[in-house]
Write a structure and sequence with these properties.
Pfam families: BPL_LplA_LipB (PF03099). The chain is of the alpha+beta class. The chain is built from five helices and twelve strands. The chain has a seven-stranded mixed sheet with strand order 1-2-3-7-6-5-4, with helices on both faces. Strands 11-10-9-8-12 form a five-stranded antiparallel sheet, with no helix packed on it. β8 and β9 form a beta hairpin. α2 crosses α4 and α2 packs across α5. The termini are far apart. Bound molecules: biotin. Biotin binds next to α1, β3, β6 and β7.
Amino acid sequence: MVFKVIRYKKVTSTNDVCQNLASEGAAHGTVVVSEYQEFGRGQRGNTWESEKSKNLTFSILTRPTFLSVVEQFYLSKITALSVTDWISAYIEKNRVKIKWPNDIYVDDKKIAGILIENSFSTQYINTSIIGIGININQDEFSDELPNPTSLKVENGNEIDLELCLAEILECFKGRFAMLEQGQNYDIDKDYLNRIYRKDKYFTYLSGTTKFEAKIVDVEPTGELVLQTKSGEVKRFAFKEIGFVI
Ligand code: BTN
């Protein structure tokens, strides 16, 4: 995978710019990075707030046409793993987790978010825009954010954003190569090992029902597999389940 990085001072959303470039035929590996996003987007229709020039907000255009629609969750897995691989070079590995499906946590705080937007041609993926926001040098956050952190908050050091981007892209390249080579078993294993709150009982909320359960697995399609104390196994798609903190 060869990256071509395109830099902007301000965009609406790097995912949108990347999407436009994709429709104009931009190559696999095109990266859009911006110092500021006016309308940064998060999952579940949320916004993504990021202080200007302090953090990384970027999107990678990929064309994983070998991947079928039912395998698309692998893009979430390899992206989340790339970010955790990279952060683990700066913060003790066992503190860096993936909160299913693809939020990146340090202990109990969110340091990075991922928004993947795919397009399809018949049953295969055509383009996948991999949007990544990582809090790097920001040390003050709005009270509205539930539990944010940054690399600087966690390890005290400011880091050069260009260096960070180059390092993260190398991690992504390695994980994407695993996917191309069909190393799904290893990807599954690494992803599951990194899952936040795995194998520990917590209270979950599905609709209006609260129940105690532990995460035991994640299906290849991305569904979360929970087991209750009585041994009952329940599967949930994203949006169907929340933690009760
Ligand atoms: C989330 O945690 O809800 C996902 C956040 C994803 C944010 C990134 S920043 C770069 C890219 N452009 C966007 O508008 N969103 C993603």
